[in-house]
Amino acid sequence: MFSRHRVRPLALAAGFGVLVSVVTPALAADLTMGFSSEQQSIDPLFSRTGPNQTAAAHIFDRLMERDEKGIFQPSLAESWKNVDPTTWEVKLRQNVKFHDGSPFTAEDVVFSIERAPKVPNSPASFESYVRSIKAMQVVDPYTLRFTSTTPDPTFMQNVGGVFIISKKVAENATSADFNSGKVAIGTGPYKFVSWTPGDRMQLLRNDAYWGPKPEWEKVTIRYISNDPARVAALLSGAVDVINEVPPTDIPTLKKDKRVNVINAASIRLIYIVLNQRDDAPGIAGLDGKPLPKNPYQDARVRQAISLMIDRAGIVDKVLFGQGVPTNNQVPEGILGYNPDLKPKYDVAAAKKLLADAGYPKGFSMTISGSNDRFLLDGDLVQGIGQLLARGGLKVAKVEALPYSVFSKAAGENGYGAWIFSNGNSAGEAGRGLESMLHTYDKDRKLGSLNRHSYSNQVFDKAIDAALDEFDDAKRWKLQADAAAIAINDGGMIPLYHQAVTWATRKGFSYAGRRDEATLAMSTKTAK
Predict the structure, then answer these.
(1) What CATH number has the domain spanning 265-499?
(2) Helix (H, G, I), strand (E, B) or coil at 281
(3) pTM, two decimal places
(4) Digit-coded pLDDT (tens) for 368-389
(5) Are residues 117 and 36 in contact, defined by beta-carbon separation less than 8 angstroms?
(6) Is 15 exposed, middle or buried (0-12, 13-18, 19+ CB in 10 A)?
(7) How far is Cα 323 from Cα 337, in angstroms, rounded to an integer?
(8) 321-348 confidence digits (pLDDT tens)
(9) Domain ranges in the chain?
(10) Contacts of 361 (CB under 8 A, 6+ apart)
């Protein structure tokens, strides 16, 4: 059904000039990791995309952290309580030091939260994390009182996701100052040593860390975007652990007793975005001339495109089974999941909807995506392009770009139709639905990730009500109902939830994480 652009198999790894053998560690104090994607900045508040948060998590702490199962746990915030529906009192951990020896206090939290939505040129701002804060009061150096604009049951999960930086060091700093190392000073388990873009980042253990002492004294993170090269680096002993193991190599690696393969289900959603601005690029008539109206503004066109996508086929043929087909914002078992939203594949129904919308022979469009952000994303863009063509559209161009280039243009509405991902930072559907699909409202800080100008007043009212509900059971139903409104309207087109695979050399172990992060702290010496 699909033509595949296969990743080169494991047997070809030696073609990269490395010796394919596995060296068992002698319990060395150093760790070298091979990452598929690189952060855009060392500034922990520059972008909330996965590579940036993964890099930042080694150097900086947050008020709350996720464990391997994706459950929020206390971190710099030791405890918190809901004084009333709009007031939260937070007790901070005492005796915590920044890497330069200065004390961590409530002033650093206030400074970090105030800076979070204001970092210049951020491709994915932290604004949605702090949008519901009305006021912050420093009660004492280790007590904060937050007032929210409305009742917000996920307030702490959101505010707790902001990385905390030193006010003393970073008050007038730029993101470039973080990248140089000048102000890359956190309270985290590792100290920043250096970053050579396109090559590696080096870290040194923070022996004064307030939490569990990391096992590794020195950590080197190498950026190896090429899949066969990353596997070859593991097999040669050049790196000890790799992320995003190519699906084509998983069966072979699982049979190799010298290698450990770790798989974890992810909460990350991969989805299609359709730009509904009047001037959306990449759209034309079959003759190549501009259309009088953007077809993506018609719900029937959006619904048709959803019906063109064979999600099960994508997971099976393109991803080699490394995903779960979905038509939901969150996977089953997560608050807000709607069991009635089933993936549907019906090309005949799609063509009828196109005809009803006035495009019986389709129209010309471009589909865009990244080629180094998540598992087989470049192949995914090609597969989606094939399905759209079979569904009755003229796919004039399929483009898969490096994420650093792609994400910047996506954030500036530079595409007509594109494939994106959402990591679900709040642990339930509501916040993701709001940030991606609520009508953009600068004053209320709603729809901060609604890059495609979707607007549905019925959905807006539904998700507003869902986010105000503190009772979990009621909130679940309200979020599920809101999801149905937007997804059935084609506000976004969910594709699948990603599965994630890591591999380590013998003598190392990795605790697979549902948040997909690859952390030195989750890597251990095997017993």
Answers:
(1) 3.10.105.10
(2) coil
(3) 0.69
(4) 999 988 888 999 999 999 999 9
(5) no
(6) exposed
(7) 17
(8) 889 999 999 988 888 999 999 999 999 9
(9) 28-223, 265-499
(10) 286, 392
| Burial of residue 90, with CB atoms counted within 10 A of its CB: 0-12 exposed, 13-18 middle, 19 or more buried | buried
pLDDT band at 28 (very low <50, low <70, confident <90, very high): low
Half-sphere exposure of 259 (CA within 13 A, CB side): 28
> DSSP string spanning 313-326?
HIIIIISTT-EEE-
Cα–Cα distance, 251 to 259 (Å, whole number): 12
Nearest-angstrom CA–CA distance, 481 and 73: 29
- pLDDT category, 299, cuts 50, 70, 90? very high
**How much is the average pLDDT of 16-39?**
66
* Residue whose tokens read 């999960």: 157
**Distance between CA atoms of residues 24 and 506, nearest Å:** 6
pLDDT score of 69: 75
> Strands 394-401, 241-242: parallel, antiparallel or unpaired by DSSP?
unpaired
Selected residue with higher pLDDT from 454 and 431: 454
d(CA 435, CA 431): 6
Reference 311, options 487, 478, 150; nearest CA is: 487
- Angle among Cα 352, 358, 363 to the nearest 5 degrees reads 90
Which CATH superfamily includes the segment(s) 28-223?
Answer: Periplasmic binding protein-like II (3.40.190.10)
When the pLDDT of each residue in the chain is averaged and rounded to a whole number, the result is: 91
